[in-house]
Amino acid sequence: MGSKLVIILVGAVLFTVAVPFFAAKRLQLGTFAKSPQVATMTLGSTVVIAGGRAKLWYAGGDTGGDFEIQCSKGAKYCQPSQRFEEFESNGVTVQLIEIDDRVSPFKAKFKITWDDKAK
H or E element: which one contains 109? Predict the structure, then answer.
């Protein structure tokens, strides 16, 4: 009975360590984030991007594609006049790829790039 308890405890410890580790790798969280990333967002949502270097807020606005990049140096509100226009803030570059206005709320897809070596 004692060896079964040890096996269960070891399995529980491995499970509590392995699940967050693999989830972070799969979801590209923190230091596991690799450039480029693609973020699909609904109107009004915010997401942490570039391994925690910045936040992206999808505002919609007049064009339907307005967004804001928030980083340690401040925030930059961006109003792309065309798709694939690039906006840069604190070494993080964001491009609006597509807007899906057939759904409510709107959805937008963004491409995020940054230098993996720079912090």
Answer: strand 107-114
